[in-house]
Amino acid sequence: MPQKSRAHILPISAALLLLAGCGAQQPPAPPPPEVGVVTLKAEPVTLATELPGRVSALETSEVRPQVSGIVERRFFEQGSLVRKGQILYQIQDAPYRAALATAQGNLAMAQAAIRASQLQAERYHRLLAIKGVSQQEVDNADASADQARATVQARKAEVQAARINLDFTRVRAPISGRIGRSIVTAGALVQTGQADALATIQGMGRVYVDVTQPAAELLDLKEAVRAGKVSRDGADAARVALILPNGKTYPVEGHLEFSEVTVDPSSGSVTVRATFPNPDGTLLPGMYVRAKLVEGVRRAAVLAPQQGVTRDERGNSVALVVGKGDKVEQRQLTTDRAIGDKWVVTDGLKPGDRLIVEGLLNVRPGQQVVAKAPEQVAVASAPSGAKGGN
Predict the structure, then answer these.
(1) How confident is the model at residue 113 (pLDDT cuts 50, 70, 90)?
(2) Residue 214: what are its φ and ψ, rounded to 5°?
(3) Which of 107, 95, 101 is nearest to 168 (CA)?
(4) What is the Cα–Cα distance from 253 to 291, expressed in whole angstroms?
(5) Cα–Cα distance between 232 and 346 in angstroms, integer?
(6) Residue 219: which of 295, 274, 165, 332 has the closest Cα?
(7) Residues 308 and 362 in one domain
(8) C-alpha distances in angstroms, 220 versus 214, 223, 226, 296, 370?
(9) How far apart are CA 268 and CA 212, in angstroms?
(10) Residue 66: exposed, middle, or buried by beta-carbon count in 10 A (0-12, 13-18, 19+)?
């Protein structure tokens, strides 16, 4: 090649190499990352609290003897249902039958004596008219007649008492319900006022469920009600659901009865009582359950999906939102409780905020992003030097 041609080619090659070097140092800027966002809105939500509780019988009665004697027979099966007034035990009644017969005989004697004293008083009154007896004798005859009548009343009361004691030899069920084990058998001696009950009956048609609620939660709820944030009007405000020990939900809802008026100083909690129908006897006294108490309805709650809420290094709840100019903003949140897969946010988010729920690892506060609907975000690798969290 001629010398002159080489001289023209060298400057052109140098210029091309210079342009190539400049392009390697300044590549085109990458597009803003895409994130999936959910636009928050205010909506009513029913607030419920899950608390531990115990089942107790609506009615409990200890069967005790009203008279002393030997048990002759038991008339019920242990663990069965009994009706009010049903005979449970028979106590030997021969002594009480004899006592009734004696009382009836004494009554008959008193009734005979009253007839004689009345006739005598009438005769003395006739004799007094002809001065045949003194006034003192007439007064004594009247007093004897009154005493005889009073004796008859006393003998009638004795007969009634003897009849009641005889009836008490048949020990009856004071309430309807399921009866437990019997502590006595035929041949046992029972006594009036003994310490041990013969058996215990528990009314099972309806039962109580007593749950304990922290006093702080109760105060927070009352403040929210006073502020108008939570409504306790309507039938929903008194509903209670039960979770049984096997994890299943009891098919019948209960009704909130009342809250205790004092706080337990040892636990700082308040007892809340609810009643539940128990037609098939599923709920047994002493059973441990978990109760879901409907506290009320928050009229304008902000629900944030849990995948959009994380925690910072201090353990505070935080979230990323797409703010003005499509730039990422970090918010510190105050949450009340979880409902399903969402948090009830009481501070830090407001209706209309665009909460980032997808692509959190690819963005940081202050960065510009492209907001799209969830599950439509393109998967991209995190840029070099970007933080992997909040």
Answers:
(1) confident
(2) -55, 140
(3) 95
(4) 10
(5) 18
(6) 295
(7) yes
(8) 10, 5, 10, 12, 40
(9) 9
(10) middle
DSSP code per residue over 181-215: --S--TT-EE-TT-SS-SEEEEEEEEEEEEEEEEH
Q: How many CB atoms sit inside 10 A of residue 155's CB? A: 20
Question: What tokens does 238 get?
Answer: 């008194």
Q: Residue 210 in contact with residue 56, Cβ under 8 Å?
A: yes
The domain that contains 347 carries what CATH number?
Answer: 2.40.420.20
Look up tokens 């005598």; give the residue. Answer: 120
Domain-terminating residue out of 178, 196, 214:
196
Q: From CA 277, how far away is CA 203, in angstroms rounded?
A: 11
Tokens 């100083």 correspond to 265
Range of the structural domain that residue 107 is part of: 93-168
Geometric angle at alpha carbon 107, from 105 and 108, rounded to 5°: 65
Q: What is the pTM of this model?
A: 0.59
3-class secondary-structure state, position 384: coil
What whole-number percentage of the chain has pLDDT above 70?
A: 80
Instruction: Report d(CA 130, CA 389) in Å as an integer.
Output: 127
Q: Return the pLDDT at 47.
A: 78
Q: What are residue 136's phi and psi, to 5 degrees?
A: -65, -40
Lowest pLDDT segment from 36-45, 254-263, 313-322? 254-263
Residues 181 and 214 in one domain: no
Q: What's the start-to-end Cα distance of the chain, in Å?
A: 65
Tokens standing for residue 96: 């009480």
Alpha-carbon distance of 354 to 305, in angstroms, equals 12
